[in-house]
Write a structure and sequence with these properties.
This is ATP synthase complex subunit H-domain-containing protein. By secondary structure, the protein is mostly helical. The protein is built from five helices and no strands.
Length: about 120
């Protein structure tokens, strides 16, 4: 019977026994904070910006445009040099042929679906 009593008391003492772990300090954090507190920033020079920052100056004010003295002559010269419809069509045809524009969606889709020829590479 004494062994039962011993087991109960051991179980009771095991429940009440707690290990109080000593709060372990983080050595790295303490060292980091110590170094942060000990840091002294180098004194900034009073004219540290000299040579780095450029002086700002306003751009010159734009001048107002002036009308030509003989506006009627200028307009008639412009009308004389205006391209005609035939000239515009020839310019449009040459630019379209050089860029392959205007062949249509079917030609473009056909180009996309065409098999790509891969050149053989010999090593």
């Amino acid at each position: 019977m004494s062994s039962m009593r011993f087991l109960r008391q051991a179980a009771r003492s095991a429940r009440t026994f707690s290990t109080s772990s000593v709060a372990r300090k983080d050595l790295v954090q303490d060292l980091y904070i110590k170094e942060l507190k000990a840091y002294k920033a180098p004194p900034a020079a009073k004219d540290a910006h000299v040579g780095v920052v450029k002086a700002y100056s306003l751009p010159p004010a734009p001048k107002a445009p002036t009308l030509p003295a003989d506006l009627a002559a200028e307009l008639s010269a412009y009308d004389a040099t205006e391209p005609t419809k035939a000239e515009a069509e020839t310019v449009a045809k040459t630019s379209a042929s050089s860029e392959d524009v205007g062949k249509g969606a079917d030609a473009f889709l056909g180009f996309l679906e065409a098999d790509v020829k891969v050149a053989e590479v010999h090593h």
